[in-house]
Specification:
heterodimer; A: alpha/beta; B: 194 residues; alpha+beta; 39% helix; globular
């Protein structure tokens, strides 16, 4: 099981999938041509990570903008984390939103209500 | 065949300063190129409103790419079968306007009209709930993203958006969607009258 780092592009976030740090961290914009393909590689890594015996994962979402296809992938992401939370894995979600970005805040709020793993909404100033 | 040069006449009349206008093939490469140009042109001056303008712009240009009836005939691999349309971002004294248009079939027109009417008739305060519901529903079906996109645009424009359909020859329709993003919260209820 190896850590993986995907570099940021104009339309995809940087993704750090870190085995030793037990963290998956996304940062940047997300409007790829095929969002489902892009996020599937992260979901596959998480599945392999837990199948390798890991018992915890911290996830950090620091996204500037994502389109609706990516929003569906975020929902799938939360559904996957919820599955492992239901299997007694220690899951945490840190959802960052820029102070005046009500769209990012509201979607984070909706996820925090719909899913039961520990979920923090954290504001930042750019 | 409608000529590309004719698209501009269907858009909402230009008011204020044009920040960006593009007419042609909306390949993914062009989406990225145009969004980068928009960021360079508007991000420094638009402040917190930029994300809303940017989000609506990307959503609309990706809609053209995916759903426009008129497709690229280019043999170039990067422009393979992408939609053709027009998009314009302009700035007025009190709001930013993003307007886009593309051709659609009569069948698509019926579907889109129903969708747009339903969203337009939803009170602003219920749009977020509608968005969340559609997002969950879309998780269960394979979709390129069209349904939730209009609600996202309505949300980002705080309900200040409109649409038009122009009947063309050969059973085709030209669809125009326009969103207004208020510059200040104080005039969000009346952004159109600059």
């Amino acid at each position: 099981m190896e850590s993986v780092f995907l570099a940021k592009t104009t339309e995809t976030p940087s993704v750090r999938m870190d085995v030793q740090g037990a963290v998956v961290e996304l940062e940047g914009n997300s409007y790829p041509e095929n969002a489902f393909e892009f996020y599937q590689q992260i979901f596959d890594w998480i599945d392999t990570y837990f199948n390798s015996g890991a018992d915890r994962l911290r996830t950090v979402f620091r996204l500037n903008y994502f389109n609706t296809s990516s929003a569906k992938c975020m929902l799938n992401f939360m559904t996957l984390l919820q599955k492992y939370h239901g299997q007694d894995k220690m899951i945490t979600v840190e959802w960052y939103y820029e102070e005046d970005d009500d769209d990012m805040l509201e979607i984070g709020k909706a996820f925090s209500v719909d899913f039961t793993m520990p979920f923090q909404l954290l504001s930042f100033v750019d | 065949m409608l000529q590309s040069s004719a698209y501009g006449s269907f858009l909402t009349p230009e008011v204020g300063i044009t920040v960006l206008e593009y007419e042609g093939i909306c390949s993914h490469e062009n989406v990225v190129h145009l969004s980068t140009k928009l960021e360079q042109a508007l991000a420094p001056s638009a402040g917190g409103r930029f994300k809303k303008v940017f989000g609506i712009f990307v959503e609309l240009v990706q809609n053209i790419k995916l759903y426009s009836l008129e497709r690229s005939a280019s043999r170039s691999p990067e422009h393979h079968n992408d939609g053709i349309g027009i998009i314009r971002v302009s700035e007025e004294s009190r709001c930013y306007t993003v307007t886009a248009g593309n051709c659609m079939s009569a069948e698509a027109y019926e579907r889109v009209k129903v969708k747009c009417e339903a969203i337009k008739n939803t009170p602003k305060e219920e749009l977020r709930l509608l968005y969340n519901e559609h997002l969950k529903r879309s998780q269960e079906v394979t979709s390129k993203g069209g349904g939730v996109g209009f609600i996202d645009i309505a949300l980002k424009a705080n309900g200040n958006w409109e649409y038009e359909f122009h009947l063309l020859e050969e059973n085709r329709v030209f669809f125009v969607i326009t969103a207004y993003i208020a510059k200040g919260k104080f005039m969000e209820e009346e952004p159109k009258s600059a």
